[in-house]
Amino acid sequence: MRVVKLQKIKDERLLLKNLQNLRIAYMLQTIGIIGILGYVFITKGLDGMRKNPLWFVFILTTVVSAFLSMNISVEYESRKRSSKQSFLISLVVLTLISTIIGILTSFTEGFTAMNGVFIAGIVFLCGVVPISYVYYLRKKIDNQAD
Amino acid sequence: MRNNLKVARIQANLTQQQLAEKVGVTRQTISLIEKGKYNPTLKLCLEICYALNKTLDEIFWVEK
To answer: Where are the transmembrane segments (chain B) (predicted)?
Structure first.
Protein backbone atom coordinates (compact mmCIF):
# COMPACT_ATOMS: atom_id res chain seq x y z
CA MET A 1 0.00 0.00 0.00
CA ARG A 2 1.23 3.43 -0.85
CA VAL A 3 1.35 5.98 1.91
CA VAL A 4 0.53 9.48 0.78
CA LYS A 5 2.51 12.03 2.75
CA LEU A 6 1.45 15.64 2.89
CA GLN A 7 4.53 17.82 2.88
CA LYS A 8 5.68 21.27 1.88
CA ILE A 9 5.94 21.60 -1.88
CA LYS A 10 9.53 22.03 -3.04
CA ASP A 11 9.12 21.14 -6.70
CA GLU A 12 9.54 24.38 -8.66
CA ARG A 13 7.12 23.28 -11.38
CA LEU A 14 4.39 22.66 -8.83
CA LEU A 15 5.12 25.93 -7.04
CA LEU A 16 4.60 27.72 -10.34
CA LYS A 17 1.42 25.79 -11.00
CA ASN A 18 0.21 26.68 -7.52
CA LEU A 19 0.74 30.38 -8.27
CA GLN A 20 -1.18 30.04 -11.51
CA ASN A 21 -4.02 28.35 -9.63
CA LEU A 22 -4.03 31.17 -7.10
CA ARG A 23 -4.34 33.63 -9.96
CA ILE A 24 -7.45 31.86 -11.22
CA ALA A 25 -8.92 31.81 -7.70
CA TYR A 26 -8.15 35.52 -7.28
CA MET A 27 -9.80 36.30 -10.59
CA LEU A 28 -12.96 34.40 -9.62
CA GLN A 29 -13.02 36.07 -6.22
CA THR A 30 -12.69 39.52 -7.78
CA ILE A 31 -15.48 38.76 -10.26
CA GLY A 32 -17.61 37.61 -7.32
CA ILE A 33 -16.90 40.76 -5.29
CA ILE A 34 -17.66 42.99 -8.28
CA GLY A 35 -20.85 41.02 -8.91
CA ILE A 36 -22.04 41.37 -5.31
CA LEU A 37 -21.14 45.08 -5.21
CA GLY A 38 -22.94 45.61 -8.52
CA TYR A 39 -26.03 43.89 -7.12
CA VAL A 40 -25.94 46.04 -3.96
CA PHE A 41 -25.42 49.14 -6.11
CA ILE A 42 -28.56 48.35 -8.11
CA THR A 43 -30.71 47.46 -5.09
CA LYS A 44 -29.44 49.94 -2.48
CA GLY A 45 -27.65 52.63 -4.50
CA LEU A 46 -24.17 54.10 -4.19
CA ASP A 47 -24.34 54.72 -0.43
CA GLY A 48 -25.52 51.18 0.23
CA MET A 49 -22.61 49.85 -1.83
CA ARG A 50 -20.07 51.94 0.03
CA LYS A 51 -21.43 50.82 3.42
CA ASN A 52 -20.83 47.19 2.43
CA PRO A 53 -17.61 45.84 4.02
CA LEU A 54 -16.87 44.17 0.68
CA TRP A 55 -16.36 47.65 -0.76
CA PHE A 56 -13.48 48.17 1.69
CA VAL A 57 -11.96 44.79 0.75
CA PHE A 58 -12.28 45.66 -2.94
CA ILE A 59 -10.64 49.09 -2.56
CA LEU A 60 -7.88 47.67 -0.38
CA THR A 61 -6.97 44.91 -2.86
CA THR A 62 -7.10 47.38 -5.76
CA VAL A 63 -4.72 49.75 -3.94
CA VAL A 64 -2.38 46.90 -3.01
CA SER A 65 -2.28 45.56 -6.56
CA ALA A 66 -1.72 49.09 -7.93
CA PHE A 67 1.26 49.58 -5.61
CA LEU A 68 2.66 46.16 -6.54
CA SER A 69 2.36 46.87 -10.26
CA MET A 70 4.25 50.16 -9.76
CA ASN A 71 7.14 47.93 -8.81
CA ILE A 72 6.99 46.34 -12.25
CA SER A 73 6.37 49.44 -14.35
CA VAL A 74 9.27 51.29 -12.69
CA GLU A 75 11.63 48.54 -13.81
CA TYR A 76 10.24 48.66 -17.33
CA GLU A 77 10.32 52.42 -17.92
CA SER A 78 13.09 54.19 -19.80
CA ARG A 79 13.89 57.45 -18.06
CA LYS A 80 15.55 60.57 -19.30
CA ARG A 81 15.32 62.52 -16.03
CA SER A 82 16.97 61.55 -12.78
CA SER A 83 14.79 60.07 -10.02
CA LYS A 84 15.23 63.16 -7.87
CA GLN A 85 14.19 65.49 -10.69
CA SER A 86 11.02 63.49 -11.47
CA PHE A 87 10.24 63.35 -7.76
CA LEU A 88 10.52 67.15 -7.40
CA ILE A 89 8.44 67.77 -10.55
CA SER A 90 5.72 65.41 -9.28
CA LEU A 91 5.76 67.17 -5.91
CA VAL A 92 5.39 70.62 -7.51
CA VAL A 93 2.52 69.43 -9.73
CA LEU A 94 0.81 67.74 -6.77
CA THR A 95 1.17 70.88 -4.63
CA LEU A 96 -0.35 72.97 -7.45
CA ILE A 97 -3.27 70.56 -7.92
CA SER A 98 -4.06 70.30 -4.21
CA THR A 99 -3.79 74.10 -3.79
CA ILE A 100 -6.22 74.66 -6.67
CA ILE A 101 -8.64 72.08 -5.26
CA GLY A 102 -8.32 73.70 -1.81
CA ILE A 103 -8.99 77.21 -3.16
CA LEU A 104 -11.96 76.04 -5.22
CA THR A 105 -13.39 74.22 -2.20
CA SER A 106 -13.09 77.20 0.12
CA PHE A 107 -14.86 79.43 -2.42
CA THR A 108 -17.71 76.94 -2.86
CA GLU A 109 -20.90 77.88 -1.01
CA GLY A 110 -21.40 76.02 2.24
CA PHE A 111 -17.67 75.38 2.74
CA THR A 112 -15.29 77.42 4.90
CA ALA A 113 -11.62 78.21 4.28
CA MET A 114 -10.82 75.59 6.91
CA ASN A 115 -12.61 72.96 4.79
CA GLY A 116 -10.51 74.01 1.81
CA VAL A 117 -7.26 73.56 3.72
CA PHE A 118 -8.51 70.22 5.01
CA ILE A 119 -9.44 68.90 1.55
CA ALA A 120 -6.18 70.18 0.03
CA GLY A 121 -4.28 68.45 2.82
CA ILE A 122 -6.03 65.13 2.15
CA VAL A 123 -5.41 65.36 -1.61
CA PHE A 124 -1.76 66.21 -0.97
CA LEU A 125 -1.31 63.29 1.45
CA CYS A 126 -2.98 60.83 -0.94
CA GLY A 127 -0.67 61.97 -3.72
CA VAL A 128 2.52 62.12 -1.71
CA VAL A 129 2.40 58.44 -0.69
CA PRO A 130 2.55 56.91 -4.22
CA ILE A 131 4.99 59.58 -5.42
CA SER A 132 7.39 58.79 -2.59
CA TYR A 133 6.96 55.08 -3.18
CA VAL A 134 7.81 55.44 -6.89
CA TYR A 135 10.81 57.60 -5.91
CA TYR A 136 11.95 54.93 -3.47
CA LEU A 137 11.60 52.22 -6.16
CA ARG A 138 13.49 54.27 -8.75
CA LYS A 139 16.27 54.99 -6.26
CA LYS A 140 16.52 51.29 -5.48
CA ILE A 141 16.83 50.45 -9.18
CA ASP A 142 19.40 53.23 -9.72
CA ASN A 143 21.50 51.71 -6.96
CA GLN A 144 21.27 48.27 -8.54
CA ALA A 145 22.46 49.58 -11.90
CA ASP A 146 26.17 49.41 -11.17
CA MET B 1 13.09 22.36 -24.99
CA ARG B 2 15.10 19.40 -26.26
CA ASN B 3 17.84 17.94 -24.04
CA ASN B 4 19.92 14.84 -23.34
CA LEU B 5 18.61 14.21 -19.87
CA LYS B 6 17.10 10.80 -20.61
CA VAL B 7 20.34 9.45 -22.07
CA ALA B 8 22.42 10.84 -19.21
CA ARG B 9 20.03 9.43 -16.61
CA ILE B 10 20.10 5.95 -18.14
CA GLN B 11 23.91 6.10 -18.37
CA ALA B 12 23.99 6.91 -14.65
CA ASN B 13 21.69 3.91 -14.10
CA LEU B 14 18.99 5.88 -12.35
CA THR B 15 15.21 5.73 -12.66
CA GLN B 16 13.18 8.91 -12.96
CA GLN B 17 12.04 8.43 -9.36
CA GLN B 18 15.59 8.04 -8.06
CA LEU B 19 16.81 11.13 -9.90
CA ALA B 20 13.76 13.07 -8.72
CA GLU B 21 14.51 12.19 -5.10
CA LYS B 22 18.16 13.16 -5.53
CA VAL B 23 17.34 16.65 -6.80
CA GLY B 24 14.25 17.16 -4.64
CA VAL B 25 11.47 17.36 -7.21
CA THR B 26 8.62 15.05 -8.22
CA ARG B 27 8.99 12.26 -10.78
CA GLN B 28 6.52 14.03 -13.07
CA THR B 29 8.81 17.04 -13.29
CA ILE B 30 11.74 14.88 -14.42
CA SER B 31 9.49 13.16 -16.94
CA LEU B 32 8.28 16.48 -18.34
CA ILE B 33 11.84 17.82 -18.61
CA GLU B 34 12.88 14.69 -20.52
CA LYS B 35 9.96 15.12 -22.89
CA GLY B 36 10.86 18.79 -23.31
CA LYS B 37 7.51 19.91 -22.01
CA TYR B 38 8.78 21.77 -18.96
CA ASN B 39 11.41 24.48 -18.98
CA PRO B 40 13.43 24.01 -15.76
CA THR B 41 15.08 26.89 -13.94
CA LEU B 42 18.84 27.19 -14.11
CA LYS B 43 18.96 26.17 -10.45
CA LEU B 44 17.19 22.88 -11.14
CA CYS B 45 19.37 22.26 -14.23
CA LEU B 46 22.46 22.61 -12.03
CA GLU B 47 21.02 20.27 -9.39
CA ILE B 48 20.39 17.66 -12.08
CA CYS B 49 23.93 18.07 -13.43
CA TYR B 50 25.41 17.65 -9.94
CA ALA B 51 23.31 14.51 -9.39
CA LEU B 52 24.41 12.98 -12.71
CA ASN B 53 28.02 14.19 -12.56
CA LYS B 54 27.70 15.97 -15.91
CA THR B 55 28.10 19.53 -17.07
CA LEU B 56 25.30 21.81 -18.19
CA ASP B 57 26.66 21.59 -21.73
CA GLU B 58 26.46 17.82 -21.84
CA ILE B 59 22.85 17.64 -20.75
CA PHE B 60 21.18 20.84 -21.81
CA TRP B 61 23.14 22.28 -24.70
CA VAL B 62 21.36 22.18 -28.07
CA GLU B 63 22.70 23.55 -31.33
CA LYS B 64 20.76 26.51 -32.66
So the answer is: none
